[in-house]
Amino acid sequence: MKIDLTRVIKDFDDKPIENADGLAMTVGRIAVQSLSINIPDDKAEDKMLKFNLALDIHGEDSIDLTAEQISMLKKCVGKIQGPIVVGRFNNFVDPVGDAEKRVSKSKDKKSKD
Q: Rounded to whole angstroms, how far apart are CA atoms 63 and 96?
């Protein structure tokens, strides 16, 4: 699936979220940052996969990713970033998967009411 790495992550007021350097946080920046942070239960092989994917993403405007790579990205972002970044990021990299989850949760919530 082709991912637009230049998409800007926005807050609930639709304003760009910025990093410490004042740069807008894009899908690409979030991906590289999240892939580069050490997660304690990662094995050496996982770290190499993350490193290579971060190298492929860094500096690019878009990239074609496999379902496996998207899954790894979502897992890393989910462990590292806050809720709004995770939500926005996942909507950009896996819009169908996240839409299905939202519909499913909405149906579950209505059935409980």
A: 18
Q: What are phi and psi of 7, to 5 degrees?
A: -60, 135
Burial class of residue 94 in the structure, from the number of CB atoms within 10 Å of its CB (0-12 exposed, 13-18 middle, 19+ buried)? buried
Query: Into how many domains does the chain fold?
Result: 1
Q: What is the pTM of this model?
A: 0.81
Q: Which DSSP string do the residues of the chain spell out, in sequence order?
A: -EEETTPBPB-TTSPBPB-TTSPBPBHHHHHHHHHHS--TT--HHHHHHHHHHHHHHTT-SEEE--HHHHHHHHHHHHHHS-HHHHHHHHHHH-HHHHHHHHHHHHHHHHHH-
* Domain hosting residue 55, numbered range: 2-112
User: Quick one: tokens of 37?
Assistant: 């942070």
Report pLDDT digits (tens) over 63-78. Answer: 999 999 999 999 999 9
